[in-house]
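Students often ask what a holo structure prediction actually looks like on paper. The answer is less mysterious than it sounds. You provide the chain, you provide the ligand, and the output is a string of discrete structure tokens encoding the 3D arrangement of the protein together with NAP.
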Amino acid sequence: MFDTVAVVGASGAVGQIIRQLLEERNFPARKFRFLASARSAGTPLTFKGEEHTFEELTQDCFGGVDLVIASTPDDIAAEYLPAAVDAGCKVIDESGYWRMKENVALVIPEINPQDALNAKGIIASPNCSTTQMVVALKPLHDFSPLKRVIVSTYQATSGAGVQGTADLHQGSASYLKNEPYEYKAFAHPIAFNAIPQIGSEKEHGYTSEELKMVYETRKIMGLPDLKVNPTCVRIPVANCHSETITVETESPISPEKARELFAAFPGITVVDDLKNGQYPLPSTCDGSDDVFIGRIRKDISCDNGLNFWCVSDNLRKGAATNAVQIAELLSENL
Ligand SMILES: NC(=O)c1ccc[n+]([C@@H]2O[C@H](COP(=O)([O-])OP(=O)(O)OC[C@H]3O[C@@H](n4cnc5c(N)ncnc54)[C@H](OP(=O)(O)O)[C@@H]3O)[C@@H](O)[C@H]2O)c1
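The corresponding structure tokens follow.
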């Protein structure tokens, strides 16, 4: 087992769930440390019934640490994580900064665990909207190779961190009282609205969030030419991202077969009974580690097309759970 584990960004939306998961899953280690910015340093927290305090993240804070699980903004991951690697730590990073770099493993344990075990430096955990989609795509691709993927996302405000959640709550309360509210995490009001931009503008009119879904999916699945066409939308749901996914495969996959393939795959739960109004909802998937799939049906516009609806807790499988699963994989293979 690892001797000392440092959770970096431990006060954030993802970091809070990482702490919770390390407790819940009884992650084996002798010592845990919790790091964040100077703003949080000295603030007390309780972990496994013991009192701790947040420490400030610095370049020389990694001495004696064996494993770092980090969830900070990209610039902080860029600035500090090389020091952790130099100090000899295994490093798992949630940020977007390292994912597409050469020699950085990008890992979903159900899909490409070997990449984590072979990694020499930082192991990155994918973008939240990518992770749930790739988990859903993998059993289909194993049955009949994917030709094309079209995805539209309905992303929760917790994807924009602690401030995203605060904006949804405070913005909604202000809206109902007809009072002004200055949004900090979003460029437009998110209360009672839908914003078809997540991230910055990139090539061909796509956003950075959309291109993450293209490039990260290709890297994790080892399919450099896979055609992926995403549209990412922020909606006023507090937690859990939803996605409509349409796939075209080389040979047809019937809805019955897809249900069977999904149900047999680790980490997927099928909830698919339209007649009785049963399908995954953000409200029912909140707090779960699985990827939930429903509304499985043939794409009536395409011979080998299949449609489905996919919901997952972006703070859990989309972030913290995936990182902790990678940590467990490393721990079991020390
Ligand atoms: N939210 C999601 O669904 C999700 C999913 C997948 C990946 N991610 C990625 O995970 C990362 C964290 O996201 P989040 O949603 O948890 O954000 P967040 O709630 O804003 O938390 C950010 C964390 O980083 C720390 N931090 C910020 N500036 C720092 C600095 N100068 N020095 C040291 N620590 C600093 C914060 O500490 P203080 O509290 O002290 O400021 C906090 O612990 C981001 O890269 C995000 O893209 C998020």
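Residues 9-15, 36-37, 39-40, 57, 71-74, 76, 94-96, 128, 158-159, 161-162, 314-315, 318-319 surround NAP (CB under 6 Å).
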